[in-house]
Recover the amino acids of this structure.
């Protein structure tokens, strides 16, 4: 399915604005502070129920208004158009309807569409903490597979209870009280660990292919799940025995130190055909001691979190999103939408051309930019071009805090 229409009411810098999108490449062009990122944030908010930019959702409501409302139309070849209506008001919460019917939970909402988002902050997927990478994997997979979502919930509950018991034992309770929690945790951990392993395996080949397609020299990049559970074969009984062996150390810390809650996702450049080409020309004799020369990758590859350039880290995130889009399409039969915010600014021209070529066959993409010169005229001719500001958006100079006497929004534009 693809996003064909988006209406934002009292959302960030938009009073009441409507924009239409095409099923392929959409290029949103506008100067800074014209609402490019707000546009993508509004669409994401309607389909995921959270903002990718802030946890303080009252910031989403336009100054002086008492609610925000987003209307989004999804179209596809295999189903009738769906109208998503998402309303939010501070202190009143959220309500969402899908084609007129109330949606009972955000988990239900997220399972109905497959979308991916790149923002400048997305680079933290590579250079940020392992917890961020685990959360990204679990959020993506949970929207795709309800059993995965249930396994992630079970692990968090078992981990919470086991940590509480470890703290109690550290404070003087009997260590035997850990036995049932070890069993519960081991079963939940093995279930989630196996599902994470299978997911990363499924993503791995597609990630490598996407990364190669975005590099002029077809460099070889790879994705790896780093997990303690590999040592116990992802088996619950073996994991429970390992927990028993490690029990004294965990009691001393009052925390669970072994399990899938310590997993990480590694992005790296791997040794392969692309890295085995000819080296630079031979150095003159007087430079025989120079450190410059062919550089071989270490046996485990070059970790992009530690040694990757900003461009390589950006490439890795884009390749992961493209791989996730392909896996979701293979499982659901629907190609999801990619939302890409300011992705072209730090790419050189060769990589921009490769990215646009890849996106042209990747279903719907909505990409924002301040500079239309990042695209060729031929690329723009084949895309839906949207120029900002839209009618119904605020002028940047008028975005001030409301006067105390400001009245409520008109009833006709109320939330849901």
């Amino acid at each position: 399915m693809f996003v064909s229409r988006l209406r934002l009411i009292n959302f960030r810098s938009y009073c009441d604005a409507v924009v239409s999108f095409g099923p392929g490449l959409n290029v949103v062009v506008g100067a800074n502070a014209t609402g490019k990122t707000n546009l993508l944030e509004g669409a994401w908010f309607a389909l995921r129920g959270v903002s990718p930019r802030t946890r303080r959702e009252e910031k989403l409501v336009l100054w002086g208004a008492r609610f925000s409302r987003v209307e989004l139309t999804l179209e596809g070849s295999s189903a009738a158009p769906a109208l998503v209506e998402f309303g939010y008001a501070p202190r009143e919460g959220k309500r969402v309807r899908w084609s007129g019917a109330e949606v009972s939970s955000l988990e239900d909402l997220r399972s109905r569409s497959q979308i991916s988002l790149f923002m400048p902050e997305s680079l933290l997927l590579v250079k940020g903490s392992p917890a961020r990478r685990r959360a990204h994997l679990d959020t993506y997979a949970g929207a795709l597979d309800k059993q995965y979502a249930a396994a992630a919930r079970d692990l968090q509950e078992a981990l919470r209870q086991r940590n509480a018991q470890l703290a109690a034992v550290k404070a003087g309770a009997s260590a035997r009280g850990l036995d049932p929690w070890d069993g519960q945790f081991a079963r939940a951990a093995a279930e989630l660990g196996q599902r994470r392993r299978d997911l990363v395996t499924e993503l791995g080949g597609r990630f490598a292919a996407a990364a190669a397609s975005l590099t002029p020299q077809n460099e070889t990049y790879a994705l790896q799940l780093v997990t303690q559970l590999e040592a116990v074969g992802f088996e619950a009984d073996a994991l429970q025995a390992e927990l028993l062996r490690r029990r004294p150390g965990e009691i001393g810390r009052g925390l669970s130190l072994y399990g899938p809650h310590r997993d990480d996702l590694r992005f790296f450049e791997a040794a392969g055909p692309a890295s085995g080409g000819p080296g630079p020309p031979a150095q003159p004799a007087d430079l025989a001691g120079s450190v410059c020369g062919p550089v071989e990758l270490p046996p485990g590859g070059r970790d992009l979190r530690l040694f990757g350039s900003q461009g390589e880290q950006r490439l890795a995130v884009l390749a992961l999103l493209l791989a996730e889009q392909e896996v979701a399409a293979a499982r659901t039969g629907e190609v999801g939408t990619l939302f890409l915010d300011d992705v072209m600014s730090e790419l050189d021209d060769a990589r921009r051309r490769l990215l646009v070529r890849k996106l042209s066959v990747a279903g719907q993409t909505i990409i924002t930019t301040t500079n239309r010169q990042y695209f060729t005229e031929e690329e723009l001719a084949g895309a839906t071009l949207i120029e900002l500001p839209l009618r119904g958006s605020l002028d940047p100079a008028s975005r001030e805090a409301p006067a105390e006497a400001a009245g409520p929004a008109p009833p006709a534009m109320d939330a849901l």
User: Anything to note?
Assistant: Residues 273-285, 400-409 have pLDDT under 50 and may be disordered. The chain has one domain: 2-277+296-413.
